Amino acid sequence: MESLFFLLPLAVLFAALSVWAFFWAVNQHQFDDLNNAGHSILYDADPPVADGATRDDDDHDA
Amino acid sequence: MNTASAQPAPTSVCYHCGSPLGGSTAYSVLIDGRERPMCCPACQAVAATIVGGGFDNYYRFRDTAQRATPSAETAEFTAFDQPEFEQRWLTALPDGAVECELLIGGMHCAACVWLLENYLRRLPGVAAVHVNLSEQCARVRWSPRQQRLSALCRAIAALGYEPQPYSSDRLERLRRSEQRRALRRLGVAGIGMMQVGMCALGLYAGAIDGIEPMYRDLLRWISLLVSVPIVFYSGQAFFSGAWRGLRRGAPGMDLPIALAIALAFAASVWATVRGTGEVYFDSVSMFIFLLLGSRYLEMRARHYGGRLGTDLLSLLPGVATRLEGGRPHFVPPEQLRVGDTVLVAVGQTIPADGRLLDARASVNEAALTGEFMPVRKNRGDLLLAGSVNGAQSLTLEVSGAGEQSRLAAIHALSRHALAQKPRLAQLADRLASRFALAIVLLAGAAYLGWHWLDPQRALWVTLSVLAVSCPCALSLATPAAIANATAALRERGLLVTRADVWEKLPAITDVVFDKTGTLTEGRMRVAAIQPCGTRNADVCRDIAAALEAGSSHPIALAFAADRAVPAGARREIAGRGVEGTIAGRRYRLGSPDFALEWCPSAQASAPAPTASGQWLLLADHTGPLCWFRLDDQLRDDALQTVNALQRRGLRLHLLSGDRSGAVATMAAALGIQNVAGGVTPERKLDYIECLQRAGRRVLMVGDGINDIPVLAAADVSVAMNNASHLAKTSADCILLAGRLERLPQLFESAGRTLRVIHQNLLWSLLYNALAIPLAAAGWVPPWLAAVGMSLSSLLVVGNALRLRRHTAPTEM
Fold it and tell me: Which residues of chain B, if any, have pLDDT below 70?
């Protein structure tokens, strides 16, 4: 049971990390719109790049 | 109008915006391998942009067709690059990037969010894009070396939305930071509570099975460590609230809560240090978390209702054009001074109050009055900030800018109205105050009593009394129910802005409707075409459409058609009609005497049709060609709403300022017996007060500034979504989507809400009546008190959640 002396403070550290991550998310405005955030998972994250949109020029110019 | 869905759109509407095509196939865009028809160059351009960026999926994801694409004022975007604009709107960040907040008009579903975020993210230099659909705004961060605000606005406009850079006012910023602070506190309490709960489980197991003192103390110290931020950071809200209440002499529910937390924490610390007694860190943490959670939810509900109509800046244009020495300069509207000369182009919003310098102008004051017909102004007349310029560009001399404008005065009024606390909340506050005092006294008495009887138990008994009294149920009973009911209705397009509504609705006996814009759409439509003699109706209609093309007058919009080829040499004579040349012939469309001016002899031979309504005549030099009847279309759900309300036993009235026979016709069609047409605003007010004096309670549904005193006098007022700004902010409810069928649902919801509130209050009364004496008698250990309190609050909140359940729409 001596491991408790190590594990419990470790758990507190993790809790502190979670709080920090939560604060970061709140400050990033991620929680501002709770009604519509759920829809974003339904859509593809990266739409296909269409011709000529933002692709870099290939190097084979004549 | 058809709502676009996964099915292929019928070929008779524009694939992008859903407007009818009427046979024109001039515009189309290749989307997903199929040619899709478009109604106009604007829709075609937007659709091409979307497809060109690789975002075809937008058309698969969206819920409904976008409304008709607004025309983008790209010229004014270049003004945004000027230093005075950049200074106003852009926030410089430490790493060299800049951030800007923009209002985005025209967003209506999550697919729009997806489209905007992904499209903007791919532009060079853009670091982050975050779109908030509920608040209709976007926040963009970019590197100023690679990107400019004007280019971003142009990109947004190319997608068919209306961007407007925005700097939130003080109240808005305060509200947002308050919300984020509350959320942070809640997060600390939640995460901490779980950690403390983990340790508490160990302690409970140890209490049952035995535990070595060393480990018990370890668990206790860890609990203490984690509880410190919970009590002092998250719990701070209660301590400062209690202190404020004490200073004011009116202690609220924060007082017993703060006392309970402080006592429990102090006693637990003492027990940890001394190694004796019990610790209650888990109860304290859970207590704080639950209370903060419910307050946060209630705050969000309250803030959402308050947001609508408090944004003065969103009504003004982003840019004003000031003429200095005859040359135009772009400036922010707040920098205008009295005496400045301002140029306002067609379709632009007037940035400040001022006197018209030109001979004539036509402006649309819908944002202020709700009246959708334009108003004619002559030289020297006052033009109001927020109104939209109609026929031709105008110049004005500023008389009131920024805070001095009429719009700002209306805005201040609305803010004041919204800040007032509803009567129910005030009542609850007073009750809570008395209850809090009673609890504290009782706890004090318990302490004294036990101190005399058995000093060792005194503290714990007092703690139990304070904890078990469950301020939660009382303070949560009403707000929880109201928050849930409000949210449920809001999701269906009815926004309740005052909590009084829930209390007053069940007592309503009469409903008064306005006509134009309330029962009707507020848009003109061609209802009948009567050609004279053997003329072809379609040909006449096309001629009329060609004459009216290009104008944004409501009458012109009624004729708006597919073929947008305007007539040549077009001339609009205000109030009478329009004249133009088509294929070499001159035509006139307007009031009969105007149209027949060229051949007065024909007037006798072509009598006006006898049916009542607004008739326009199309004529040329040979005589009359065709009669058109215009009317304002009845909303499609008006009849079923009227029936549903009558079934509830409500008496209905129709009051309108319209003098024509259309009022009586409409009332007959709907089955409303109490009708009055040609009613002035004063008479409307009298009518309502008369009803009220007879003991009846009135709900008024309206939309214009003429209705403001009436809306205020009614017991409950409902504004339509197309109502003026002032009407919306002084009304108790707003029909966001303009669906009248929400009205019967409002009544039903109010009945259920009141029932739930009463149930909650009854429960908390019973619970307290039972638990407090038990606790004072020493039969309730603190842990049981905490459990009882938590369960009690959960019950109240759970009961309130039942209000979120959507009932089926009232059967028609």
Answer: 1-12, 19-25, 63-76, 167-171, 298, 301-315, 366-372, 410-429, 470-476, 550-554, 561-566, 574-575, 602-613, 659-660, 704-707, 724-726, 729, 782-783, 786, 806-812
Contacts of A20 in chain B (CB under 8 A): none
Kind of pairing between the strands at B651-655 and B674-676: parallel
pLDDT digits over B39-59, tens only? 777 778 888 888 887 887 788
Q: Which residues of B touch A47 (CB under 8 A)?
A: 53-55, 57, 118
**Rounded distance between C-alpha atoms, residue B684 and residue B686, angstroms:** 5
Nearest by CB to residue B226, choosing from A5, A15, A40, is: A15
* CA B741 – CA A35 distance, rounded (Å): 24
SS (H, E, C) B630-699: EEEEECCCHHHHHHHHHHCCCEEEEECCCCCCHHHHHHHHHCCCEEECCCCHHHHHHHHHHHHHCCCCEE
Please confirm, yes or no, whether B63 is among the known catalytic residues.
no
pLDDT at B9: 46
CB-nearest partner of A32 from B114, B132, B215: B132
Closest CA relative to residue B447, chosen from B787, B789, B775:
B775
Contacts with A, B 213-242, CB within 8 Å: 215, 218-219, 222, 225-226
- Select from B734, B136, B729 the least CA-distant residue to B409: B729
The residue written with tokens 């905490």 in the block is: B786
| Beta carbons of A23 and B184 less than 8 Å apart | yes
Amino acid at position B176, single letter: R
For residues B331, B337, B340, B342, the Cα torsion angle rounded to the nearest 10 degrees is 40
Tokens, residue B793: 């609050």
Q: Is the Cα dihedral A7, A12, A15, A16 positive or negative? A: negative
CA-angle at B333, arms to B328 and B334, nearest 5°:
130
Q: How far is CA B89 from CA B80, B82, B101, in A?
A: 9, 11, 7
Please tell me if residue B177 touches chain A, with a CB cutoff of 8 Å. Answer: no
* pLDDT tens-place string over residues B460-484: 788 778 777 766 666 667 777 777 7
- Amino acid letter at B617? L
Cross-chain residue pair B184–A22, CB shorter than 8 Å? yes
- Short-list B345, B314, B316, B396, CA closest to B104: B314
- The pLDDT score that the predictor gives to residue B1 is 37
Q: Report the complex ipTM.
A: 0.76
Share of chain B above pLDDT 90, in %: 10
| Rounded CA separation A18/B278 (Å) | 29
Looking at B282, B514, B715, B732, which residue is catalytic? B514
pLDDT in tens, B132-155: 877 778 889 999 888 888 888 888
- Contacts of residue B125, defined as CB under 8 A and 6 or more positions apart, other chains included, come to B142, B143, B144, B145, B146, B147
User: Rounded to whole angstroms, how far apart are CA atoms B467 and B283?
Assistant: 9
The distance between the two most distant Cα atoms of chain A, rounded to a whole number of Å, is 74
Query: pTM here?
Result: 0.65
